[in-house]
Fold each of these.
Amino acid sequence: MSSERKALLEKAYPEVRSFCCGLGLVFEVVDLRWGIRNVPSGDHEACEVFLEEIQRCEQMSAGPTFVALLGNRYGHRALPRLIPEKLFDALLSKLSKNPEGIKTLNQWFKKDSNAVPPTYVLQTPARSQPRRNNGSTHQVKARGHHAQLANQVALCCLCFLSVFWFFLPTVTEREFERGLWQNDYESSALLFVREIPRQKSREGPKRFAKFMDVTGDGLLDAEAQGLLAGLKTRLFVKSQKILNLHSVELSRGSINPKCKEHAQYLDSVCEQFVSQMKARIGAAIDSLGRRKMWGTTEEEEKMDGLVVMEARRHIAISAELCRGFHGREGLLGKLCLAMWESSNVRHRPLVVHGGAGMGKTAVLCKLAQEMRGVLEARAVVVIRLLAACHPQKPDIDHVLHSICTQVCLASGLAPPSPLTVSTHLELLRFFWDVLEQISQQGGALVIVLDSVEQLADQHHAHKLRWLPVDLPPNVHVVVSMETNSEAFANMRFKLESLGSFFEAERLSCEEGERIIESDLRVSQRTLTCEQSSAVLQTVESSGCPLHLKLILSVAKRWTSFTPLTELRLGTSTQEMMSHLFLMLEEKHGKELVEYGHTFLTNAELCDVMSLDDDVISEVYRYSLPPIPSLIRLPPLLWVRLRRDLQDHLEERWTDGVATIAFNNKRLSEAVSAHYLRSERRGRSLRILAEYFLGRWSGKLRPASLPGLSLLLSDRKVPPQPLWFAPGLANIRKLQELPYHLLHSGLWEELRQEVISKTQHRGKGACGPCSLPLFSCSKYMDCTETGLIRDALVLMKPSLCFLEGHMEVSLFYSELLARLSSLNSAFPTVIGRLCSQCEEWLLKYPDPILIPRSSFLQQPGGALQHTLSVLRGGQMIVVLRLLVAGSDDGVVEVWSMLDKQLVHTLLGHTASILAVKVIGSPAHCLSLAADGSLRRWSLMNGQQLFCIEEAVPIDSTPSSVHLHLSEQLLFVYTRTQVPPPRQASFTHCRMSLVTSDPVSALASGEGVAAGWGGAPPEQQSMLVPPAGSVCERLPVSSEVSCLELAQNKRLLLCGLTSGTVLIYPLALPQETLCIPPPESLCRVLCLTAGTKEKHLAVAYEDSVCLFEITSRDNFPTVEGPLEKFALPLLHAPLSAMALLPDRRLLYGTSCGEVKLWDFSRGGDVSDLEPHRSGVTCVTVSNRGAHALVGSEDTVQRLWALNPLGFLFEGVLSAAFSETDRFVFTGSQDRTIKVWDVASGNLLFVQYVYSPVVRMVTFRDGFVAITRQGAIIRELFRCPDHIGPDYNPVRSFRAQYRVTSREKDREGPQTSVSNLQDFNPTQLNLNLVGMFKAKPSSACVML
């Protein structure tokens, strides 16, 4: 059936693989007969391997597991490798009258007393080597001997039906029995049977061997054909529902794909295979209840579900290690006693340490198991085996978050959320708080962390600052680490007492005997006395459990007749590893064993080894490939190697994919050190990089085989697209490709394929895909790579807030808003990245804001690090330590070297008034508003003493002072005296920034500034670039307000002296001036009408209307044309807007909103007031709508006739040029876009700072934030918006809808969730969320 196998490999498998990838499934084909000539002929272990692989597929597969191809050959009937003792004795009894048969049987089989029960083992002249493809001459001879012996034994045993079926069935029939008839074959199996209608007369016996069974004389094997007919009859009767029967006439004893009839037959087989596989897979997925198994960008499981899965995985590994655990009773007793004695008092964590391979993991697993049985039902036991992820090192944030979630779910506490643990520091505080809450509730908690030295370097986890040293009652933390690790040195520094340290010592002889006996009992094996003594004598010298485990993995294969001289026992762990590697190389070849270290799936391993020319040359050293144009590694070779390594390998499930990895860190490191030398490591990494790039998919790769010239062959490796389907990413490529490109030195491919591609950055921006960027900065001298890495770090708050599931559009827009200014300076990588972002956003089908400038914090610059300290309080920096006290009474100690939190000092109950560091710097003092003065040790974070009532309670920081002398401590208190009012500025300057075309903005605070739009077409050296300061203008007094007449290019400036300055932007030195009024009142606000024909100036006591005209092409101001006085008790005007019909809409600092009509002699209309001061009044370009916003986070959009609807949170607003949209900047640090006609919310963008001023610019707007950033964006909105579009899908909030129509008496209010989104009149409640979570920061420059 080789032709059918080749057709399936070329046509059917790729189509089914693509179908599975689109569903998030991994399609893996294990054809153990492909690429091997006559596998069962001389290999008596093949049947065991085949049946074990069928069982493995049944355990792993979510869909079909067995595909059977049956032609006209029954197959070789080889002797079994193992015969049970009772059956062998029965054979001898039946051969009692045949001395020659008894002699032959005893010659070929020897009794193995090490098996339980004893078994007779077949002795072969020479064990076939799979890597030689069974091409040696002695194997052909062995086949004849085996056939003769099989016939003799079978003839003697025909009277026993069970014995008959034990010897006669081929491997094929046993596979059918296991894969078809022992399970629900209708849903898990496919069956293809080929029949020959007739035999041509010219087809002689020589051609029988190609497709039928023949005897040693070359004649047709009638017995085998009879057995085959019986098997087919059985299949026709039992497996009719899954049977695909084909009748094909062979051509010269084979299938010729060039023949039309045969080509149609092969196409039919492939079509049936594809259609039936798709149907079975679809049914299996429907039964599982989900269609995406891995790689999906949609959140299909909640975080608690993922944590439960992770906890179960660690518990399962722990239970597996406990099964073979023996000894260590003394160490376990000491740990349990220490935990019992410290249960009711505050205590220290416990540390188990020892050398590598000393069994620390097993001890902690057994301890966790014992604690579950000893503690009460309310107790929570959490175990994390950190070395189980080797070589990937777990991040401390992930570990702590997982532990907190598990503990909270088990204890009924609120689990961590993005709003509470968005930073590492907040996660630490949450973890420590959970420990305290569990203790206060009276519950018991045991946290077991194994191999803490395996933590990743993020946040300097090895310094163990995250580990609390003062645990509350009933809360226990047990950790393990290697004695020679950095983590152990730091732990000894943190814990002064040796009572918390427990060493895992060497195994005793008695413990070794019990471990050997238990392990062999599970494997149904034993050892002779001589073998057992040799093992114990060898292990006694090292006393290492890992050493004993390696020996036992080899000893399980010893027979009772294995000579002691052939036992390879290394005197140390390292020597035993070398012996293990040598034995594997002798059986499988060095090239195959080298790939045992890779952490790939089974399918990936076969693909990668198929691309390695050294492996292919080793495999086909003694025979040519069956199909020279299609060369791959025979899967049987890898399955054999994996079978021999089964005691040392494990399958790790990540994102629904099972990868193969060593279960011991030290063994994995030994394999890498033994095989991956510099040259070999680079070649392996390069092959892996090319594989995940998809470089050889569908292409011919050169191959150099012994005895052949250069050969071009297809290796049949699958393609590697980045996206299998919309929203379904190739997770394996995202995980593996950056690492292999980086470590293989393929810098250019790394820059072009990973760093400069938005697709790689858009999937988990600050998650696994950004980790290679941090590694790149260590090895690559690339400024652009570092800048992109820093940009992703700056984006991490957004990702954390959205729980790691940021919309791709938000990611691209934020990345563009941070990097666009670097586009021209770094065109190779950053320029390409920005172009891809902009191109993607322009094609986005929903409404979107596209950044045209860098308005978010850019990477690079003087800012090196930001410390997220607690809010308020006092701060001091002494000798690389920063001590900060907060308003919450917490004192934090930071290291300025690694920017990490060292200690959190808890004890005060009110805000910190003062902190001092003393003792160079060993101690610190903290004085709080609760009246207490405390002294702390900065070495271990412990309180040394406390003085109560050192100062009056509720003192303020300005009323106390700490002073230190050599031996005395002085605490001064004083009465606070309000300082005198400072005089106003006598001289201020204005900064003006312009470019052409101009979009100038203005900000108060005593400085006016304008920011440019697009750069001019012809720019000279004298013209500054857009966005930079080009001129500074002096003013006579403090600037109180600014306004911009954009069409007439005028900058209007109101001063506290009452003067109004008008600057033509074309000639800023030609200043116009409106003198102050007689009362010399200050200017409160300015506004120019939408037509810019009039100017309204609001003073403290009046409002004046001026006309803006021009003379000789130069602007002039005439008036005042109109004026109205404000009442004495009238609140000051805070914002106003002038309508085209000379009506003035203004708001006051008390929330009043009025409409004054100059044309009607002062007609006044009162609009609905706000509860606090009005901050923004904006009118649309055509005067049909006006938006009023206030400090009470309420914004109202008025359709001036009739009234409109209600928005919230606005600080600034601007209408688009067509008046179709209105842009608003809100206190919740967002920019919102609204449809004026319908009131629909179209888009929400988070910009990290409130927008205080906006002006229309082309198809978008230009705005300024409270932090001074300039925002210039283009708004793109399609003509049709889909009904499923939700503009607030990336925000975690509720909203309130409040509307008022003209024909209704009052407002109507309703509350809804985002799932029932009604885009009309939206109120995002984000302000309260951010107020509840302050974010104070200490910035280092």
Amino acid sequence: MSLLRACSLAKCLGRRSLADVRRCFAERCQLCVSVRSAAVRRISETPVCLQRRNISSVILKSEDAKKRVHEQSQLLDVLKARIQQLQSDVVLDVQHAKVQFLKSPSFGGGVSSGRTVKGSSKDKSDIPKSGQVVTKGASKSQPSRWMKKLSEENINKLKKQQILQQKVQRNAKEKLPGKSKASKSSLMPTGTTHKTMSSSAKKRRGGTKLSDEIRSSVSSAATVTAATSSKAAEALKTSKQKQRDSQSKVSDKDATKKTKDGDLTEIEELEKRLDEQVQQRIHLSTTESFQESSTGSSCGDIQLSIRSYLEACVFIGDIERSQNFLVSQHRVMSRRKHLTTDVYNIMMRVWAKKGTLNQIGRIFILMEEAGLKPNVGSYSAALECMGRNPNSPPKVISRCLNQMKKDGLCVDDLFRECVFQQDERDMLLKAVQTVKPDYEPSLTLNASQCSSPLVQDFYTNREHHIYPKLDFTQEELQRCFQCQLSVEQACTITIDSVEAMKPVTENMVKMRELLAEQRAQWQKVLLQALRENKMILTKTNTRDYKLNLYPYLCLLEDKEYVDIMIQSVSNLPPSGESLKILAHDLGNRIYTKYCVRQKHQNGIVEKLRSIYDAYTELLAKDTKVYNVLPREQWCKLEMEQSSGPTLQGAETSWPYVLMLELGTFIVDIMVKNLKINSDILNPAYDRKCIPILYHMYTFRSTRQVGFIKPHPILTQMQQEAMETTLTFDSSVMPMLCPPVPWTSEKFGAYLLTPAKLMRTTHGATQHEELLEKCPNLHPVFDSLNQLSNCAWMINKPILDIIISIFNDRGSDKLDIPPPLSEAPKIPHFNPQDPAYTASEKAHMKREVINAKKKCSEMHSLRMDALYKLSIAHHMRDKLFWFPHNMDFRGRTYPCPPYFNHLGSDVTRATLMFAEGKPLGPKGLDWLKIHLVNLTGLKKRSSLQGRLEYADSIMEDILDSADNPLNGKKWWMEADEPWQALACCMEIANAVRSPDPTKFVSHFPVHQDGSCNGLQHYAALGRDVIGATSVNLMPCEVPQDVYSGVAQQVEELRTRDAAKGLKIAQVLEGFISRKVVKQTVMTVVYGVTRYGGRLQIEKRLKEIDEFPKEHVWDASHYLVRLVFSGLKEMFTGTREIQDWLTESARLISKCGHTVEWVTPLGLPIIQPYHRTRNLVLKSTMQHINLQISHDTKERPDTVKQKNAFPPNFIHSLDSTHMMLTSLHCYSAGLTFVSVHDCFWTHALTVDTMNKICREQFVALHSQPILQGLSNFLLLKYCSTIQREAKNKKYQEYRRLMLLLAKVPQTGDFDLQRVKESTYFFS
């Protein structure tokens, strides 16, 4: 815009008198100074403010006419030169302002900003100095300095252009053809672009049609932007820096002559090798782009908030609010930097649906002014709008398509990459077919195979694969889908509580009636309060750029918000809940309902039904056999039914802070408006309205935490009512149909409920960014889909016994929590009573605190058991599935949180495979061995010994099955009593059947890894002694590493006791496998001596006979012995662990987070950064958020180094599990896992064991540590800045040397694992 006014000024000066010039100059320059929003580079390079001030001072002092004429003519020359320079500049955003100024006057005021001069500090500092020069009358010297500056800028610009063109040519040769095409179009010769812009500007002056305006706006959208220019300048600067670095290399070598020659030579070789790898690996550019995006992710939450707000406004139909908000954000440069192309596209889609082409043109203009380049979404919106408009000229569509082509995009990209809603795709296709009648989108499946050699054969050689079918007909599966769809559409589900089986008393009926009456009243009050608060919100924060909660409170019906509030009151524990947790839970429920409604509005439900109905053909038992995986079949069906909305990636996740803010607002309404009469339970009390919720503060450790606590009256009413129903979110329940297969990082699991592929900390985005950039995650998707496709059923006899004990008085021994009536009574005393001494008062206070803590723990455990048993009871006659996802290390988990096979002994005992398989010749033996494993009695016996033991106690087994509660109760003594009882019943049914080999068993048999973390360490280090200790080596009987360590510790203790050490003497007879097991198990996962001491202390306290006064000293003593024993037994393990720890320490010290890629290609990054405090201000309280995942903060070195070894091992055990699951699926097996514990039918245990061992050997036959070393060297040492040698060269050198020195391996032969019976057993 400033350029346009400068042009008009030049014309004015050319044909007006000198007096007119003075007036014109004052007016025009005032405009030039006040506007800069359309230009990326400020016009402050030419000090217009300075000139205006100089000239005004000259005029005010009435100098002679010659000086004025001379100065004006000099200034005219300068302005003309500046205009020519700007017109030939690579940065064309200045010219975009012409479009806005001429054709969009309504946006002109909104886009311009009066804050330009205020932000230009450079101009301010120059003004006083120049002002002094003008006052002295030396005006002739100043214009010559301007001209000199202009000429220097022109020379520098020409040099930059030449270097830039050379760099582009070099890059074009190095890059792939597809990429070079895109880069070439994004760096068009400036002359061509300028010509396009100039011609469009000429047309605008003459007054053009609406279609011409859109055409030129779409055309200009593809031109070079400020971002391109800045990147080019940055590349130029980097290349110059590299030249300087190469010149200074000799001096650096001289400075390091004092170092050892060997190290120096090794470092030089490493640097040379890394440089070669950098040159060869094209994907490094992807890494660099990721680093750029991650450095710019500081405003990620702000961008997400802006996008969420716009989408919410659009969803509720408040287009005016959304448009005003976008324009107000764009208007100010400090807020404009948070806008992305996708944000502008949101409004483009709105106007595209309305067919208003001129509004889309205006948004294109705003994007250009922001220095943003249109993407496929932008072009899609423009073409969709043309498709909706029957009068759109084909010429306009052609011009748009041509401009897309120049911008490196093709029409197929639109259909392949865009996320469509409703009929957007059809309208886009209609527009394209207007000019290309024969065009059909060319959509191809992503056939790229995983680069990992571990699964190449799995995907390429399928002739022997036998993919299992589910034991359902296609019609049954389609009915299951409809049931699950109904549940998810409702978002919540109400089920019967197992406590409803208790006999109903008169008091229970009374309390239930009271609660129902109160809830009806609370609903009316909350509805009124919500509407009043919404009215207040519409009148406050009326500034367009302010984010307001109002749109989020209109996403659902008012009654739905009230139902969410009432449900949260019912679920509130008596001890209360943290405001932060409660607020996030409420915000998340609103978000889930909003996502489901969004999918309804976008027309996704009908398309999902159509694709799923066809997908069931792959799974059903009454259809033909397919040789494809579920993911492949789903993608194929999506491609075939491409018309209509896109199923994937439709919803935008809300920021954590937004959910908290919205939830806090809702909680505030509840606290202020929910009241009850104080005499409702006791008419003797005075009647007054009291709140049922209290906002109070409590201390968690040393921090003060806001709490929402229910009034004791409400708690008493709920406990005495023992209500018959429970209400859950639909995502809490298992699915009633096979889950949607994971096909991308954003789509899979539930039908409508949003789910994440990777579980992360709230607000952490680095994992999602890595996954999106990962080229191929097919093995990970396919493994998760295999786990999710396992159908389950309830073991009804076991469930009924558990519920009967639960409704009686519970049982601590059997892990069934008792009711609160069994809780210890809280003692009451008066602290002011003088009868108590100070020590007695302190003792009583501790008693009260302990009693309250015990009550709170009992309530939590009781409610957890109630939820699990009620869900199991609800599913007792149904078949169901558990959708799976994973954590950031790749470990898999079922999505439903309460009831799943990863739960406790009680939960696992109630689960059975829905599909049954005959036991076969060895199935009954495996059931017996599994039962003995569950008892924990014969851990060091051979399989044959366990089988003989099972046969010897067959009478007890049958008695347990027949009389579990009234017989000998042998099963109650097992380590896992409920699973043991379930196995007893299965064995009893099998041996009593006519032919046990044909008995159809649904029971899952487990094969557990023998200290799996140490197994991976031993395999990595090829450690013979360590491998033998953890059963990688074939042995006659299983080696128990826990017993081995306990024995070693006992030997050391005996020696110390003989020397007279008192604590060693006290520990005589108390050192057992159980005391050391947890510490040995977790040492491999990074437990410290402090943590190990706490574990041993807990075990010693469980021993009633051990003197409690010696617990502290004994735990200190034992943890030292355990660590010493492990160091001797696992030398290779300790070396690898130390190497991983030190590597992570040096990497994080250099300012990086540790990142690696699993052998299956899953990228992993540790999200541990230094904690940053963020205060969320609300009307209730200020919530202090401790954010430890912010990529702007430096890494937390302690967490990074301590977590790397266990996280790396977890990533390996998850890889082993995924490989096993894939090959079990191709062999037709039913397979599920609990991390390192694998489950299958008794019939197929031998097959699963064979696959498990083969995949472990295949995994560790890969050069895992060497591959990790190469990755870390390339990641962290290839991009080191050379100037850092002066400051941090020692750390850089140490990191390079450490990463290059991979720990030496031993002589263990991995192939022996295939022969090891007890590797998994």
